[in-house]
Amino acid sequence: MPTDDIELVRAQFHAFAKQIPLLYLILAINTLAVVFTFAKFGHPWISVYLPLALCIAGLGRGVAWWRIGRSAVSDDVVIRYMQRTNKFAFISSMTFIAWGIALFPYGDAYAQGQIVFFLGLSLISGAFCLMHLRSAVFSLTLFGIAPFSIYFFFAEQGHFRSAAINLALVSLGMIVILMIYNRDFANLVSSRRSLLEKQEETQRLSEENLRLANLDALSGLPNRRALMSQLEAIHQATGKANTQTAVIFVDLDGFKDVNDTYGHETGDKVIKIVAREFQSLLPEGAVLARLGGDEFAGLISGSDAAEQADMFAARVVSSLNEPIRIRERAIQIGASVGIACAAQGACDARELFRRADAAMYDVKANGKADVRVYSAALDAARQRQQELEAQIRQGLIEGQFDVFYQPIVDADRKEIVSVEALLRWPRRLAGPIGPDQFISVAEASGLINPLGLLVLRRACRDILEAKVKLSVNVSPAQFRDPDFEAKIAAVLAETDFPAERLEFELTEGYLIDHPERAMAVISSLKGMGISIALDDFGTGYTSISYLQRYGFDRIKIDKSLAGQIATDKRAGVLVAGAVYMANGLDMAVTAEGVETEEQANMLRLAGCQCLQGFRYSEPKPIDEIRDLLTERSRDVAA
Asked: What is the pLDDT of residues 20-70, one digit of tens each?
């Protein structure tokens, strides 16, 4: 019996488990019918006891097959049972043929006819019940039907010859049919196996697609879809009354500059490093996902979810205090983290996620690199910011913004040598507000780019005919635009404003956070001929090395320091030291916030070349500035 195709052997086994009990039942019924007829003929051992023993043995085998067909068995057991069936087909056929032929002479014509009928019916029934195993059918035919046909062909002067020939011919046809059936059965098993293999492959691909659909390919973490699914599952599950769910929303600070400065390949490496670091900080049982770009989110559930979220968020911020080293580069980024925590059932999954996002957004808008836990007040503040953002967009479309100018005078000659362009919003529909209220919103939303270009374009046109230089503030957020330098060059070309008359004022915050990008932009701007001034000097931590490294043309001493020079001796010393240091580095010095003549005289004596403040003029619209320039020119000439 072939055993190389175990799937086929198993299929045959399961078919036999249903058919063999029926075969033994048929044999038992037929045998008992013969016993009933031959009980009065022959010796009891051959006419009663032996057939009864065969019935009992057959029924025992049938019960054994019935039981094993309803239990899980190994391949070895299946093969063993099939091999036994092959042997028993030979043994059974020989036994029943020998018994029938031995019993045949004892009966009368009626009883002998029953023997012929019994043996023929039993052999044909056996062949059909064994049809799934070709070798067993051949064994039954060769050692059962063949001896039967030969014996009865010559028995009783040929009275049963027709029955023998008939059974032989039927057997031949039956063998042909069973051969075809065996082939079809084997093909069916093979087709079923192929179908199962395809189903398994389809299932595997489906599971793989599902896994990929819920996986962030770059970091290997679950993605937004997977996180939201798990958050929904936690929300819908019934748990203990004190169960809490916390969402921690993490946004990387300065990651866009990494991509802009070093390229996306380096950015991808940073994401992988950060993902591994965050995952190592995650509490047991929590989930970390990458939402896309530079955004991550953690999900913590349990009775102490709020405390675990606080600790995880603090570790995340702390872990990015040190630069990330990739080859020879030291990349400095930070993390702004928002936390939202709620008892189970207090709010739905999407609302909890939105709250964490709102808390993170508040961190972004107020200094970054910090952790904020959601409170209802954050929604009011964010709503205000969103409304203000929409108003800025509308203001840009409707031309609600103006540019005012504040003069900068030569400290010795008192002549206006430059003007600083300052953005104002006088025609806001809800009423004017100062730059300190809307610039941060514009920076966070990216609207600072069109606002900054609006100021530069209008100022270049307004001041083009004046005989003074132009100073324009540049927001650190504008440096994040990879096309910033190209856009500046386009405005200068459009307005025909000489780059040598233009000075950009920068604050030191961006220099410290993103030195490489800042240095590249400054170098490009200076290559165009634009001067660069360091604004608000004295309020931060700028070192001499920064002044040397970036090659500023000017520093502007902040009004908080310059305004105290007449009242605070230490302020005077600091101003004098700053001027001395700047002059030593070939940098000019402008003092802001000058309000009195006394302050002006002391700043001039300290070495400041230029002065700016209300002592000379408050910011004015362009028409008033032109009048002022004309007036000051006459006064200086006089």
From this structure: 787 778 878 877 877 777 777 767 888 788 888 888 887 887 788 788 777
The label of the residue with tokens 């070093």 reads 262
Taking residues 487-492, report their average pLDDT.
95
Nearest Cα to Cα of residue 239 among 303, 307, 304 = 303
Q: Cα dihedral sign for 609, 612, 617, 622?
A: positive
Dig out the tokens for 579 from the structure: 């001027």
Identify whether the C-beta of residue 584 lies closer than 8 Å to the C-beta of residue 605.
no
| HEC string for 439-461 | HHHHHHHCCHHHHHHHHHHHHHH
Contacts of 238 by beta carbon, 8 Å cutoff, 6+ apart: none
Q: What are the backbone dihedrals phi and psi of residue 216, each rounded to the nearest 5 degrees, phi first?
A: -85, 115
Model confidence at 432: pLDDT above 80: yes
Kind of pairing between the strands at 329-331 and 324-326: antiparallel
- Can you give the pTM of this predicted structure? 0.57
**Nearest to 531, CA basis, from 470, 456, 592, 591:** 470
Average pLDDT across the chain, whole number: 83
Sheet holding 287-292, edge to edge: 287-292, 295-302, 244-253, 334-343, 371-373
